[in-house]
Amino acid sequence: MSDKFRAILVSRDEDKKQSVDIVQLGISDLMDGDVTIKVEATTVNYKDGLAITGKSPVIRHWPMVPGIDLVGSVVDSQSDEFSAGDKVLLNGFGVGEAHWGGYAGMARLKSDWLIKLPSGISPLQAMSVGTAGYTSMLCVMALERYGITPDHGPVIVTGANGGVGSIAIAILSRLGYHVIASTGRASEAEFLKSLGAAEIIDRNELSEPGRPMGKERWAAGVDAVGSHTLANVLAQTRYGGAVAACGLAQGFDLPATVMPFILRGVALLGVDSVMAAKQLRSEAWQRIEKDLDMAKLEKITTKIGFEDIVSTATDIIDGKIKGRVVVDMTNS
């Protein structure tokens, strides 16, 4: 195995001007960790797009190799939990922000951040799922823990064309839920129905300031949008319902009132995927192996190579990407 590999390195100068370069690195350049991995696949998430374009201050250590998701084979381990040859999976923990991530041929990581790749999921499938799909499953599990079942009524999914939304639709529909998809792309209605959406509504119904309480329309929700959208979702949730919130595509504010909470007993369930405990991560990925139709996953996945990462990161910030992007890193 060669000591040299390619990587995308994001740097900035004394004037804080950011630059993005493809560079050659060696294993000795990697950051500290007790497990060294040959990266086989990664993906491009919205957060990766922010890191590469500099549209938001995502990066906390300079220079940085972005990529918040990766899967690969262990080549060296100082941990009793993993051995050479094991297939392992990484989502979050500040990787790609404060610790070098998946946009390199090799990575050195802490064993506490890793889980073993489920045997029924390939590396490319795992990265097609990525943090987006893993977060979707965490949202579904949060609703289940709260007691929401298909017979309670419809579940709304906001940001339906995004990574979280599209996979949430596929999972919920397979579990028997009646899914309402909220999207700003009316032209994608048939695509969303092919994933399992039973109804499509225009996001404009939810994205503008609304009333503190509205007509009860759904029993639960998965929201990756935040701001007025989340406020309106809460205002139209049925008595005793719950909404799992995991994103802020529209904004991090919540211009709502307490009325849905105290008059209808609605619950707002916060879902964090970055620092979730290993046991919860493992459970989520086991559920993904069982409850996500991989044929539907393939429908929403675009495969690219290492050379396409930077341009794809720009496209995802510009809203040009539908579904998921998987990066084949075997030639990096």
Structure description:
It is a single chain. This protein has 332 residues and is an alpha/beta fold. The chain folds into 2 domains: 4-117 and 300-328, Quinone Oxidoreductase, Chain A, domain 1; 131-270, NAD(P)-binding Rossmann-like Domain (Rossmann fold), CATH 3.40.50. The protein contains 10 helices and 15 strands. The strands form 3 sheets. Strands 3, 4, 5, 6, 7, 14 and 15 form a 7-stranded mixed beta sheet that branches. Strands 10-9-8-11-12-13 form a 6-stranded parallel beta sheet, with helices on both faces. A two-stranded antiparallel sheet has the order 1-2.
Compose a concise summary of this entry.
This protein has helices spanning 46-53, 123-146, 163-174, 189-195, 204-207, 227-235, 259-263, 278-291, 294-299, 309-317; strands at 4-12, 18-26, 35-43, 69-77, 87-91, 106-109, 114-116, 155-157, 179-183, 199-202, 218-223, 237-245, 267-270, 301-305, 324-328.
The low-confidence parts are: none
Largest sheet: 7 strands, mixed
Mean pLDDT: 95
Percent of residues in helices comes to 25-40%
Q: What count of structural domains? A: 2
Rounded to an integer, what's the Rg over CA atoms?
20 Å
Strand content: 25-35%
CATH architectural grouping of the largest domain: Alpha-Beta Complex
**Which structural class is indicated by helix and strand composition?**
alpha/beta
Through-space gap between termini: 12 Å
State the fourth-level CATH superfamily of the largest domain. Medium-chain alcohol dehydrogenases, catalytic domain
CATH topology of the largest domain: Quinone Oxidoreductase, Chain A, domain 1
Q: Which word captures the global form? A: globular
Order of helices and strands: EEEHEEEEHEHEHEHEHEHEHHEHE
Task: Figure out the total of helices.
Answer: 10
State the total count of DSSP E strands: 15
